[in-house]
Amino acid sequence: MKILVSVCRFLVGVLFIFSGLVKANDPLGLSYKMQEFFEVWNFHWLDHFTLAFSILMIVFEIVAGVAILLGWRMRLFSWLLLVLIIFFTFLTGYAYLSGKVRECGCFGDCIPLTAGQSFMKDLVLLVLIVFLFMVRDSIRPILPKTGSVAVLVLATVVSFAFQWYVLIHLPTVDCLPYRAGNNILEKMKTPPGAIPDSTVITMVYEKNGKKVEFGASQFPADFDDSYHFVSRYDKLVRKGNAEPAIKDFNLITGAGTDTTQAVLEAKGFKLFLFEKEVLDEHPDWNKAFSVVMTMARLKHIPVFFVTGEYDRLSAWVEQQGIAAYVTLLKCDATAIKTAARANPTLFLVKGATILNKWSYADFDRALPAVNELPEQQ
Asked: Which CATH superfamily is domain 260-371 in?
């Protein structure tokens, strides 16, 4: 029995720590996943709090995992873990059974799990945690109280500090489709061997004040002028996996022209500054970026500003007196959030291949990289 309890503690503790650390590498990713759930439930007013929820949940996962391994305050942490796993199981179960959320973000973008896989994982964890909850009184701490508190405080500080670092400097392990080395155009293509969605054309008619739906090849036997056409749509029969890694990445000019292919197919080096929204008229990063942009101009490297707030960024560019040296492009805000975890983020691209990327806090590190590039014609 003692061995079984130890094995369960080890599995639960390590899994919670691992899950927390993977998500801590990209807390914004979990924040966006929370927003996806809130959107489905029409809880839009919570969107402004998702990052705080994300950070606190990640810290709690790591600290709870450490506490389970230490066997410290098992009465408290067994209750907390039980409540947490019931909540997680509800979320993953809802995502799996409703089909409205394809991934739960349990292990972030580094280890993507389907809703079904996440649900099964949480069911197994639920069984293990219920078992630990039942035997919680028999579990003794492996360290003295002072030692346990010191380890938990250290885990808490490290959890917060690591998330603070990646929020400023970008994830330390980039698992996103826009990571260095990836070709954006290739990632926008459907992967080979992918299975497309299976759909059928569904007709909607009205008869005797009631709406009737049927397949385009299955008209009712009594179909006549008493049926009045309302609409038609494609009904999903089976969900496929024919989705490209990069979706909705469209670069639109101020005149509304889609210039994605033209920009990405152009050979040579280019810089993309992704700025989802304009937060400050005099940002701290402006001085470092001005030096980078000056170096790019000397080497004839085009600079593109990609934003979800075209008018505001256009006004800022005019104010800075750099409108003649940069090209402003509009892009979907969701695509920018995926491409650039920090606001703003600078990409160095050759053709359509991402060579490097820097957050606003590291623009000074971009200068040596741009300085080493050959002069373009």
From this structure: Glutaredoxin (3.40.30.10)
